[in-house]
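dumping these here so i dont lose them again. two proteins, back to back, each one seq then structure tokens. dont judge the mess
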Amino acid sequence: MSRSEGTACPHTVHTPTTGRPAGGAPAATTAPETIGSFTRTSTFLHRDADSTARAEHHRTYRRRIRFADADLVRDRVLGSAEDVIPAGARRNVLAATLALLCGWARLSDDRIRIRQLIGLCGPRRYDPKTIGRALAALHRDEFIRYIPARGRGAYATIAIHPRFLDGITELQRDPGGRVITFSHPPPYSSKRNHLPTLRPRSGAARPASVTVDAEEVREVLANAPEPFRSLRARLRWCLGREIRTYLTRGWRPDQLLATLAATLPDQVRRPLLLARYRFQRNLIGAGPRLAPAQRAWDRRHRADGRARHDEQQRRHAAAVFAATTATMRARMLTALCARLRLTAPLPDPTTAVIHAARLALRAFPDTSLGQAIDRWVAQFEPSPSDVSDSPTPTAEERDECVVCGAKGQPREELPLRSVVCERCWRQEGM
């Protein structure tokens, strides 16, 4: 036993670690040690052979599996150990080992330190010798494969026992050592040359730029005031990039020239920063070339959204009308007014009925539409004594804003098509 493996006995004569022993006999080495399916050859006299073996040992990769398979392996091991291993150090060390292996989707790990398991064993901190004995016992009971560390700075090797790996497929690695997470070839060989198929869009994207002619950039640079024309080559290129950026946003060359040609200070030390500052403060948003295209796209987008909303409302109305009668729909409106405590008239009874049906389905999701409406109306319909004798006003009798009382218009975006004026609509950020 070497000094690094334990306390030396005073009566033991230690063999020198270098050179040859007396008599010129070759240095002795220990025989290969086999534990389970792992074989380790230990040498204490040939430092070069030990370093070579350690280098090859570090080049091996850890065995990886899928995370779903790792959870399955964990359940198998814990289920098998439930009636065999009593509560105590061995049970905690086994849980820590599974957290270290299955928690990272590994079947084995050849760089284990005892202190790693001490921190994973829970609030109680076991002695390293207790951890080592528990690992040896788990190896003996065929729950894990364990090779203890030998020598100063060495690592232990722990692996799941093969009897728990039925049906578990180990992930392969490519020539570079990366884990291959799919069994079939990739759909494209290079992301740079073969882009993945993009999801189809319902329509063209909102325009964000316009085409810029290089002559327009040169025109602005040539007609700019003297401090901007006399820039060095690199700063002139940066100014041209700024000009191209704002031309792309839809601004015209004459507008950029007017911004640059405004009253200049007596001394301009940094013309590029001055140009950037003026562009940022004066050319805000989209220019006159881009703004009309964006407004047209916005109108088409709102029209498409309104068409989809109207079609959805028609389908919902058909489903509600098929499941209810005229009397039930009148009761639904009364229950809706009582449920929402509405004092203003309902602008659109059809939209209100659809909204009441939606509230009924949310309150009773496990029933059909007709049953949900019946139960919801029975729950929120007021008693006959609470119902006012005054007739319910129609949509034409009220066009005042529900917020400020000014004249407004029904809003299709609201569930009840409530009347809201333009000022309140903008103020609320709608």
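---- next one ----
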Amino acid sequence: MSDKKLAKIEKLREKNEKRLLKGKKPSQGWGRMVDTGLGGLNKTGLIIDRVSFVKDQQKSIARDNDRKNS
């Protein structure tokens, strides 16, 4: 491997080690993603206001995450 690639790997290792010391799991990610159930809707050509639906679902997930982290 090149020196540049090895340096990148080592930097990521150090970053993950710092997160583990804080109690965060690097493999855990950001949490749940918003599942609108509207996959492929953009391709249908229908004009539907999905913004408020997605916004409400994101707020709900944020509340759940706050409850779990508290």
